[in-house]
Amino acid sequence: MLKKIALAALLLSPSSAFSSDTISGRASVIDGDTIEIAGKRLRLHGVDAPESWQKCSDGDGGTYRCGKMAANELDRFLAVSRPIHCDVIDRDRYQRLVGICFRADGREVNRWLVESGNALDWERYSRGNYAGAELTARSSSIGIWRGAFQLPCEARAERFGHKPAC
Questions:
Q1: Are 23 and 42 in contact (CB under 8 A)?
Q2: Using CA atoms in the order 91, 96, 97, 101, what is the torsion angle rounded to 10 degrees?
Q3: Which of 20, 43, 135, 166 has the most CB atoms in a 10 Å sphere around its CB?
Q4: Residue 79 and residue 104: Cα distance in Å, rounded?
Q5: What is the pLDDT of residue 87?
Q6: Which of 5-19, 32-46, 62-76, 78-92 bottoms out in mean pLDDT, i.e. has the lowest?
Q7: What is the bridge-based pairing of β-strands 97-102 and 40-44?
Q8: What angle do CA 153, 156, 158 make, to 5 degrees?
Q9: What is the mean pLDDT of residues 133-143?
Q10: Are 78 and 94 a contacting pair, CB within 8 Å?
């Protein structure tokens, strides 16, 4: 009996259930690479969007809040085809769920963020899965690629006084 209880506890523990966990529902945008579904925060795997306070060059001598724009663009993209379905693959150091998400029409949210120029391929985690999408956005000069910008991971490190995690 004790073995059965231990096995059940292991199978039900959060760390063992990631590969099969899914979350579906109406997503609220927290920032350019984080959404919330049914009260659960989910970090989009393999991508890094500018922070909401981060500014980027617009390519014409001005600046704009590229992080806020990324969040707004993500919100518009998600609104086109609901609900959102996310495959949870991990937890990050802040205990947020980490996953790959899809709109109801099958479009992958993570990939769209990168190909639209609203986020970078975070190769450290994606293993280059979105490198082609980033190249497309960069060569088209769209989103953050229309001007100069600081890598989001460097901007966070500078703002919060720690070593960059990129």
A1: yes
A2: -130
A3: 43
A4: 10
A5: 98
A6: 5-19
A7: parallel
A8: 110
A9: 98
A10: no
Identify the pLDDT of residue 14: 42
- Cβ atoms within 10 A of the Cβ of 28, count? 15
111: which DSSP letter? H
Q: How far is Cα 24 from Cα 141, in angstroms, rounded to an integer?
A: 33
Torsion from C-alpha of 82, 15, 19, 105, nearest 10 degrees: 10
- Both tokens assigned to 154: 């460097």
22-49 pLDDT tens trace? 999 999 999 999 999 999 999 999 999 9
Other CB atoms within a 10 A radius of the CB of residue 55 amount to 17
| Both structure tokens of 35 | 């959404």
- By C-alpha distance, which of 100, 134, 101, 131 is closest to 117? 134
At 94, the pLDDT band (50, 70, 90 cuts) reads confident
